[in-house]
Design a protein that fits this description.
Elements lengths: L1 E3 L6 E3 L8 E3 L6 E3 H6 L6 H20 L1 H7 L12 H99 L1
Antiparallel strand pairs: 1-2, 3-4
The structure holds zinc ion.
Zinc ion (ZN) binds next to loops.
């Protein structure tokens, strides 16, 4: 049987015949009689209390979760006195249950439709992502092809600018020669 040290509450097994003697706790060396150990035996009832509390909580949760169904079944008690025949009550309960089953089926169908819609939308998104990737690749390829053209354009602009500068230089030279000619006269 199990006993408990009254000093450190350590549990250990002893033979029932040993309860008449004394024990030395192997955990804390406290010396106590079998009678002292037995006084604390009710502590072992605690797991039973925990079980009751857990079961009570489960029952409460179940009541809360089933409240809606119970509330609707309660309509049975609000039916007119004529319907209060037990056979009719059973029929009403069966009808209510069938109604729930139909509702459940309808919700399952709605869920299945939603799932297939989501799958379709997902496919569309995958396709769109693929198109975007392709467009991106094409755009990069175009940029690569445009690079030499940009270089050409830069060179062309430079040569155009140098032509313009050359023309300007000639104009200035001509102007200075004309000025020199005028001052010579
Ligand atoms: Zn002890």
């Amino acid at each position: 049987m199990k006993i408990e040290c009254p000093n450190c509450w350590q549990h250990f097994d002893v033979a029932p015949s040993d309860l008449k003697g004394e024990f030395s706790c192997p955990a804390c060396d406290h010396v106590f009689t079998g009678r002292e150990a037995l006084k604390l035996a009710p502590r072992s009832r605690k797991p039973w209390i925990v079980t009751v509390v857990v079961l009570g909580l489960l029952l409460l949760v179940s009541v809360v979760m089933n409240f809606r169904q119970w509330h609707q079944l309660d309509l049975l008690h609000q039916t007119p006195p004529l319907a209060r025949d037990s056979g009719q009550q059973v029929n009403l309960a069966v009808a209510l249950i069938e109604n729930y089953q139909q509702e459940l089926e309808a919700q399952k169908e709605r869920l299945a439709k939603l799932e297939s819609d989501m799958a379709r939308q997902n496919n569309t998104l995958v396709v769109q992502a693929g198109t975007l990737r392709q467009l991106n690749t094409e755009s990069e390829a175009l940029t690569q092809r445009l690079k030499p053209l940009e270089e050409l354009h830069k060179e062309y602009s430079l040569s155009l600018m140098s032509d313009q500068l050359e023309a300007q230089r000639r104009r200035l030279l001509k102007l200075s020669q004309e000025a020199a000619g005028r001052s010579g006269n």
